[in-house]
DNA sequence: ACAGACTATCTATCAAGATAGTTATTGGCA
DNA sequence: TGCCAATAACTATCTTGATAGATAGTCTGT
């Protein structure tokens, strides 16, 4: 159900087409929520049917046309309600840690390789998130600027701070994964040496 | 697909029935992988059909019977192969951080409540994981002792170390979430005060 | 003898997510 | 003018996961 709210979040800034939304899922919100277009288009239609969005067919060139979705009052209310309701925590499901618990089954080389891949993956994530923080701090984030333009000036600092807070949390998470995997390599090495 | 490998991991220690396995998902492995029995029973049957497990009907009381599954050589090989193959990282999907990015939409009280719930949830997790570490360190973990009994003595330290390493990673993750939410509360308070 | 908790298994349905396509138009550039 | 990348949208299938129940036998204690 979070896809629905991720879409409402984006459309709360400005109306967008399904295509534009699916692009967003590859950049901005994409860092906290990802979805392919094959999930987005049907969900948008469902949301329109539920009255959360209003779709408008707009022409695109001589023959082409596209549907731009605008959030309705009901949509805004639904989003606000979701924001005010507690989050349900679903059970842990963490393949990386599941595998780590049985690392003695892997060859030392493969185990090391997986730890390095873990480090590489989270290093990339951390880099992208740090870049986001930089954009937010320097006022060069397009989405944020659009959002701020539609909001009273006194809320600007608060809105920006929450975004930075979010990405800082993600950076910290990535850092923990990196540190953990580094310890993993040390551990693997220590047992590989004294064979 | 990880459910399959979580089951193989458990059955690599000793044969178990579907019921026993589903109990395990509520305790030991349950902390890194959870699944309801309605997923476990069909998966076990599929795995038997695929030759990874061998099921044996064993009587239980006068009329009752249960199926105990034992890992086959093909099952062991499949598990080892999974352990040696790199993990695919799926895209981020993190409702807590998604919500945090739009925290200005929530009432300060609700926002604070969610941060407190986040802290409470991860504090519970951290406690359980720390307890697991304690069990592993003091040799009081039943599953680990069974596994060690079936393994050459020289591997004992390594096997135990990997388990502890896993849970230490989980504890660190939980700690980061707790610290993050604490910062969140500070942030919310700072904006709520100067209204 | 019966209640009640626990063991054991199975089914059905639904939502969510992953994967891999198909179709068609636009707009820039060589 | 023709090619190609980008825009725009849709469809189908499959797997996974979530939720709620149905069924039946066992074991312990009163």
Key phrases:
homodimer; mainly alpha; three-stranded antiparallel sheet; 195 residues; 8 helices; DNA-binding
Structure description:
The structure is a homodimer of 195-residue chains. Helix content of chain A is 64%, strand content 9%. By secondary structure, chain A is mainly alpha-helical. In chain A, helix 2 (18-24) crosses helix 3 (37-49) and helix 6 packs antiparallel against helix 8. Chain A has a three-stranded antiparallel beta sheet. In chain A, a hairpin with a 3-residue loop joins strand 2 (53-60) and strand 3 (64-71). At the A-B interface, helix 1, helix 4, helix 5, helix 6 and helix 8 of A face helix 1, helix 4, helix 5, helix 6 and helix 8 of B. Chain A binds a DNA duplex (30 and 30 nucleotides) through residues 1, 3, 17-20, 22-23, 35-39, 41-42, 60-67, 90, 93.
Q: Helix and strand succession of chain A?
A: HEHHEEHHHHH
- What percentage of residues of chain A falls in helices of 4 or more residues? 55-70%
- Give the strand order of the largest sheet of chain A, numbering strands 1, 2, ... along the chain: 1-3-2
- Evaluate the radius of gyration of chain A: 21 Å
User: Could you list the spans of chain A in which at least 5 consecutive residues all have pLDDT below 50?
Assistant: none
What about the largest sheet of chain A? 3 strands, antiparallel
Strand content of chain A: 5-15%
Oligomer: homodimer
Q: What number is the mean pLDDT of chain A?
A: 91
Classification by helices and strands of chain A: mainly alpha
| Major interchain interface with per-chain residue totals | A-B, 67 and 67 residues
General form of chain A: elongated
What is the first-to-last residue Cα distance of chain A?
50 Å
What's the tally of helices of chain A?
8
Beta strands of chain A, count? 3
